[in-house]
Specification:
The chain is an alpha+beta fold. The chain is about 25% helix and about 30% strand. It binds zinc ion.
Amino acid sequence: MKKILKYIISIALAGIVLSGCTGGGSSYIRSDRGKKDQIRLLLVKNAGSVDVVVNGSFKIDGSSDASFGPKGFNVDIDNNSIVIEGKSYGSRVKIIPVNNKFHLNGNEFRGSLVFYISDGKLNAVEDFSMEEYLYGVVGREMSGSSPIEALKAQAVAARTFGYYEAGLRRTKEYDIDNLRQSQAYSGTESENPNSIEAVDLTSGEIMKYKGAPIFAAFAANCGGYTEDNREVFGNKLPYLQAVPCTFCKHYPHASWKEEIDTSYIVSSLKKKGFDVDRISNIDITDTSKAGRVKQISIITDKGRISMSTNEFRLAIGSDKFKSARFSVRSKGASLLFTGKGWGHGVGMCQDGADGMAKAGNNYRRILTRYYSGIEIGQK
Ligand SMILES: [Zn+2]
């Protein structure tokens, strides 16, 4: 679970920020490239050059040259053409490692590596299978020591999310933009035997609603109640309703406290352009049915300032707020925030999935608890 934190922080309350980006209801567009399980993942965008290492031999697609390597080399652009070791390959080139692995800027990845030029800059795409992608995602999103049924639930959620993303945002050159941090993925470094087993045991399985892959949101710890998609991402989705969750309450991220100096809050608000010299307290003025704070009113020497939880979080620093499920009170020269959970709370609670699996539930029961009215089947 520790490895997911960077992602969860970014999408967590930030889920609110991503409104309109990931909460869509668009239908899945099936790949028309013949290999339906192959995906193209954007790894590097708008670069000047990148370092590649291939530890086995490799071929360059379309080149009449014999195979190369193993070797390390630099890929860059000259005269609007991709250049590898002094040789020019035009605006697009595919490197095919014989052992199906390569290193890019220090991380190891699977499959083939495609470079293309866009707006005069270099972009790199990993061309591999969805299942190989999931080996890395599951290993990054959930601890390898979690029960296999929790890992299987994570695998199905991640696979569903992957196909949903590919259907929503694929372009001519790639299916999923890894740089948007849709799901945490950094190559093979996070794979482990259990993450691979969980993916293999659920091979090809996704969650569907009315026949289409769902927006399979998930977050670290819901703090006792998941959140309705509409409250975070803006649109009502029948399968992403707020549901109670008792399985995550004994986990480290089930509760949090943050004491923040009022002088720090004042300086943060000043940086955002607010005319304020002192604050005395914060009132919570609107909460979701599931108990997350939507709107606050800051009591200042110049009157009240009303803002959304997300605006406030961005003003004072996103690292100080693990969730929108909090209360606040004045404590001397500071404000004490007391909260529950970690993340936006929409969809599967990852700690809850771990807890449900430890209580003897299989991955199907876990998923149907957090995603209402869905079917689990082959893509
Ligand atoms: Zn939970």
